[in-house]
Amino acid sequence: MSTPSPAPTPPPALAIAGLYQHVAGRCALSDLDLTLPAGEWLLICGPNGAGKSLLSRLVLGLDHPSAGTIALFGQDLARLDGGAMRRLRRRLGAVLQGGSLLADRSVLENLLLPLRETPLRRAELARAARLVVTLLQLDGLEHHLPRALSLGQRRRVELARALIHQPDLLVWDGVADGLDPSALGEILEMLDTVRRNRALTLIATDNSPAALITHCEHALVLDHGRAVYAGPSAALRETAAARIELRAALRGWR
Amino acid sequence: MHHPDRPLTGPAGVLERLGLGAIALADCLWLYLRILGGRARLDLPAFAAALRQSGLSVLPALTLVSVVLGLILGRQGEQLLAGFALPDALLISLTYAIALELLPVLIGILVAGRAGVALAVRQAGLAVSGELDGLLVNGIDPIRYTLAPTLLAMLLMSAAFAVWSLLVTGLTTWAWLWASVALGPARLVETLAHAIGPADLVGALVKPPLFALLVAPLACVNGIAAGRDPRGIARAATATMLGAIGLILVADLLYLLLIG
């Protein structure tokens, strides 16, 4: 009788190795290595121009790195063709800095965008939309165009769109943009609830770790494209007290 | 997918543009087949918007051009008849042959000028506004969102416009000649039946959709190549208008030489 082989370890949600990115002749990201297990949350913070949004775009496959590899759920992004990339992206949700809602489509049409290629019926689509509309407090805005919404409302719509298809990985660039602290707190609580029900991996960026530090297991602090801290978020405060370059990147956060 | 910050310039850029255009066109045609087979859905709001752009908004200008062309041909015909005493059969044949050759080119340019430029601007605007990223991260092929509905609208409207323009120009020319030299409708039909073969009519009806098939990918590629710079939108529009005129004339010449 043979002994049962141990269950294979699931690949990490995100694995970055030797990542460099050059933009307009300057090194915008250099020598980044990072592994994020599935179901865990990563906070990326640092001052403006540190490379947070650039790293988010690279993780989403919107830009290609100058060197190094990025793998999501064990799939090297550089090796995926267009179809495979689209299939992988159906496991991802994204809220991008600067907005990415379709200007000529209503809130409801924008929300249903990730479900366009799925065989869901009209009633199922309506149910999915209703759920995220309620969760993100967008009632009454379904038929508005994005230009008729405030920045905070647009961010909520983007977040609702990123969650409607129940992604395995959510990339949220610019967490605090357009959201007041209490609204952000409510949304993070809601995401925590989602995470308790199923393994949702989160990569969130912000200038300061203040809003997210208690929610995330991991923290990456960038400054001028370099990682000045990569480790457990619980140790960030203590490490910052001891390292001046980290305190400088965190701009006075204690 | 082309990187929006990398310009498509130089010989490699030209090759990449050609490749992108071919891929975009093939992608669209494959999508149409899947739609016909019930395995994919057409983006109806985008298709309706494209029909408005390449259809309703072009119709008044195209009708005006067709009427003016008909009047010019009628007036010239009247002068030729008076000056050279040509047989009216030969004259009508010549007139209609000019219309058959000229109208498809004018339709192509008008449709390209409206729908093609609108497509290039829309495609370029997607990158500038961040909407392109929104499509990509949601697993939507941007080509299917922009080019597919626009190309289909351009194909349908070009074919419809070809019939409409030939009718308007033909009727206007005849009306002028009837009024000036009393050319009767029976004589007109008999003359045209002798002078214009089915191949001529097919050519006049096929050419505008063929031009649309060339101009739409060109517009799409120009939009993609514009990058994230807002100034790229204007460049894409200009390049599409100029490129479309050149492409249509060259395609018309090739059609004449290869198919007749």
Features:
heterodimer; A: 254 residues; alpha/beta; 6-stranded mixed β-sheet; 4-stranded antiparallel β-sheet; 8 helices; 31% helix; globular; B: 260 residues; mainly alpha; 9 helices; elongated
Query: Gap between N and C termini of chain A, in Å?
Result: 58 Å
Report mean pLDDT of chain B, rounded to a whole number: 84
Secondary structure class of chain A reads alpha/beta
Q: What gap, in angstroms, lies between the N and C termini of chain B?
A: 38 Å
Which percent range describes the beta-strand content of chain B? under 5%
Question: Main beta sheet of chain B: strand number and arrangement?
Answer: none
Question: How do the strands and helices of this protein lay out in sequence?
Answer:
The complex is a heterodimer of chains A (254) and B (260).
Chain A: E1 14-23, E2 26-36, E3 41-45, H1 52-59, E4 67-72, E5 75-76, H2 82-89, E6 92-95, H3 107-111, H4 122-135, H5 151-163, E7 169-172, H6 181-197, E8 201-206, E9 218-223, E10 226-232, H7 236-242, H8 244-249
Chain B: H1 10-36, H2 44-56, H3 59-84, H4 88-129, H5 131-137, H6 142-181, H7 185-195, H8 198-225, H9 231-258
Short description:
By secondary structure, chain A is of the alpha/beta class.
Structure write-up:
The complex is a heterodimer of chains A (254) and B (260). Chain A is an alpha/beta fold and 254 residues long. Chain A has helices spanning 52-59, 82-89, 107-111, 122-135, 151-163, 181-197, 236-242, 244-249; strands at 14-23, 26-36, 41-45, 67-72, 75-76, 92-95, 169-172, 201-206, 218-223, 226-232. Chain A has a six-stranded mixed β-sheet with strand order 6-7-8-3-9-10, sandwiched between helices. A four-stranded antiparallel β-sheet of chain A has the order 2-1-4-5, with helices on one face. Chain A is globular, with a radius of gyration of 19 Å. Chain B has one domain (10-258). Chain B is elongated and about 70 Å long. The two termini of chain B are 38 Å apart. Chains A and B meet through helix 2 and strand 6 of A and helix 5 of B. Chain A: Keywords: ATP-binding, Nucleotide-binding. Chain A: This is Phospholipid/cholesterol/gamma-HCH transport system ATP-binding protein/D-methionine transport system ATP-binding protein. Chain A: GO terms for molecular function: ATP binding; ATP hydrolysis activity; transmembrane transporter activity.
